[in-house]
Amino acid sequence: MIDLMDVLERHSLWLESAGKEGERANLRWANLRGADLSGADLSWADLRGADLRGADLSWANLRWADLRWANLRGADLSGADLSWADLREANLRGADLWGTIGDGARIKSLQCGTYAVAYTAEALQISCKQFPIEDWWCFDDKKILGMDGRRGLMWWKNWKLILQKIIEVSPAEPTGWSG
Question: Fewer CB near the last or first residue (10 Å), C or N of the chain?
């Protein structure tokens, strides 16, 4: 069982002491489902933020959290609230964004009819399906039909051009993470 408050305190000390005391937060694969991390500082020091790879952050409150340089690769952010979170340089590759409330800059989220949509500069997630944005634009009817049947195909035919325009006029900012 993880003592989240202890981890956050030790990370804070690590940040304040420039790595001389405390320790970098390691929450890799941690079960943080529904956790209240609002305002938590899980940011960087020496360009390495908290390790949250594969963590279950579903339905977590991450409002106003400082996640600069945090490694969220493969994390479950489904249903998480990232309003006003600082995600500069965060690694979001492969993160599950289903139902995520984005920060409005690096993760954009919207409800389009019956499907929740979230996108980053690189990936678009519609319901539980996530692919690189450019892949979505190339999918043919057969591929979409295989994802969610006729209902999904009808939805895609109605929303594809609208989503393309939304992403064109309101692109997500890149996180800057290159690894």
Answer: N
Mean pLDDT over each residue of the chain, to the nearest integer: 93
Give the Cβ contact number of residue 86 at 10 Å. Answer: 20
Tens digits of residue pLDDT in 17-33? 888 999 888 899 999 99
Strand 115-119 and strand 108-112: the pairing is antiparallel
Q: Identify the DSSP state of 135.
A: H
CA distances from 2 to 6, 25, 57, 79 (A): 9, 11, 14, 22
What are the backbone dihedrals phi and psi of residue 174, each rounded to the nearest 5 degrees, phi first?
-65, 150
Count of domains for the chain: 1
Give pTM, 2 decimals. Answer: 0.87
What is the pLDDT at residue 178? Answer: 54
Q: Which domain holds residue 47?
A: 28-169
- Does residue 66 fall inside a structural domain? yes
CB 52 within 8 A of CB 42: yes
Number of Cβ within a 10 Å radius of residue 50: 29
Q: Decide if 89 is inside a domain.
A: yes
Q: Which two tokens stand for residue 62?
A: 């991450």
Of 168, 169, 141, nearest to 157 by C-alpha is 141
Q: Specify which residues 108 forms β-bridges with.
A: 119
Q: Is 23 contained in some domain?
A: no
Is residue 92 situated within a structural domain?
A: yes
